[in-house]
Amino acid sequence: MGKTEQLTDTMFYIMAALTKPRHGYAIMSLIEKTTEGVVTIGPASMYTIIKKLLKQEWIYLHDSSGARRKVYQLTDKGRRVLEEDFKVRKRLIQLAEKGLKGEEV
Questions:
Q1: What's the mean per-residue pLDDT of the chain?
Q2: What is the 3-state secondary structure (H, E, C) of 13-37?
């Protein structure tokens, strides 16, 4: 399998939150709740990354007609990027698990 662009942790968290349509505050809240407060993303960082993800066409502005808040969601391209990055992260976690258990890696 070819090498894909690796996501930063923050990009990964935001894209994972956008498997369903969400607005900015909902993204930040979900990440903080899911990580039990270990990971928090401020609005400035989040919207900077959202701009990059929009430019890469990994997310899009979901129909938010009449709504005050902008709602975003993954594109098909973004879903593929997230899936590939997830596979790499999963392998790294498996490596760490084996090493921490004292198993041969």
A1: 91
A2: HHHHHCCCCEEHHHHHHHHHHHCCC
